[in-house]
């Protein structure tokens, strides 16, 4: 439940342009993701990263905050939730210069 609230904090920070909060939220999410203990990693995946594109208007700002490792691991969750068209749109966000997460925390 906490990580779901963390996403709402990020959502508010995205809308307000609060870069400090975004840096801290995405940094904490990445730290959780990188923990060897599966509990934190799994929890942040399904309660935070699975929902990062729920507000589609923020997609460009969200995409550059994700590391390639996060994208690779969360993509199957996105496949389960979205249509083929929406998934293709998300995949396109990580094409181009080939560096998803280029500005990730």
Automatic annotation (TrEMBL):
InterPro entries: DUF7674. Residues 2-61 form the DUF7674 domain. Pfam families: DUF7674. This is DUF7674 domain-containing protein. It comes from Umezawaea tangerina.
């Amino acid at each position: 439940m906490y990580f779901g609230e963390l996403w709402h904090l990020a959502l508010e920070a995205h809308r307000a342009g609060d870069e400090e909060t975004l840096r801290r939220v995405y940094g904490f999410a990445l730290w959780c993701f990188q923990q060897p203990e599966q509990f934190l990693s799994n929890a942040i995946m399904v309660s935070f990263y699975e929902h990062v594109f729920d507000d589609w208007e923020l997609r460009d700002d969200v995409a550059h905050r994700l590391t390639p490792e996060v994208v690779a691991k969360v993509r199957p969750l996105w496949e389960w939730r979205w249509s083929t068209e929406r998934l293709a749109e998300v995949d396109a966000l990580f094409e181009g210069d080939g560096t998803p997460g280029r500005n990730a925390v």
